[in-house]
TrEMBL record:
Gene Ontology terms describing biological process: C4-dicarboxylate transport
Example of a GO MF term: transmembrane transporter activity
Keywords: Cell inner membrane, Cell membrane, Membrane, Transmembrane, Transmembrane helix, Transport
Protein name according to UniProt: TRAP transporter small permease protein
InterPro entries tied to this protein: DctQ, TRAP_DctQ
Similarity field: Belongs to the TRAP transporter small permease family.
Membrane-topology annotation of the record: Multi-pass membrane protein
Organism: Sneathiella litorea
Pfam families named in the record: DctQ
GO CC, one annotated term: plasma membrane
Length: 164
């Protein structure tokens, strides 16, 4: 299980990180070319919004859920016993899984429809295929569901601590 978790952490981090670096280089090239040569790279805005940002944001969200690094506000629970904190955090993880499941199902329906119709957007002289990026969103939400459920199970089975 730890090996799978490590593999997923590396995969999500690498793909999201590579997308971030490529996006940065693409935008920098666009700005430099526009500033010094009065030339633009066709489709920069479309590539950034349809591909780069989708990978960066949704793989990042899935990575945060995998590592359980989301923000916790424990104003009312800071003095509660560890067992109570484990139960509350476990139910929170189940609610997270349910919410991500609903979003993932909607993303899956959208991805299926986009794939069926071959979704594209026109960009100066060519059509940019956009349907593959819809599957990234569906994958990320599906991964979030699994990560949240595994975390909830670990919290409910834990007997001696809240750090799972």
């Amino acid at each position: 299980m730890k090996m799978l978790r490590h593999f997923l952490r590396c995969g999500l981090g690498i793909f999201g990180g590579v997308a971030l670096v490529v996006m940065m280089l693409h935008i920098t090239a666009e700005v430099l070319l526009r500033s010094f040569a009065n030339v633009t790279i066709p489709g920069t805005i479309e590539l950034v919004s349809v591909y780069y940002m989708v990978f960066v944001v949704f793989f990042g969200i899935a990575l945060v859920q995998l590592d359980n690094d989301q923000l916790f506000v424990e104003i009312f629970m800071q003095w509660a016993p560890k067992k109570t904190l484990r139960l509350v955090d476990g139910f929170g993880a189940i609610l997270t899984a349910a919410y991500a499941g609903i979003l993932g199902y909607g993303a899956w329906l959208e991805a299926r429809s986009s794939t069926k119709f071959g979704e594209m957007i026109p960009v100066r002289g060519y059509d940019l295929i956009t349907w593959p990026s819809r599957w990234v969103v569906a994958f990320a939400f599906s991964a979030m569901v699994l990560f949240a459920l595994f975390h909830a199970i670990a919290l409910f089975r834990s007997k001696n601590g809240i750090d799972v």
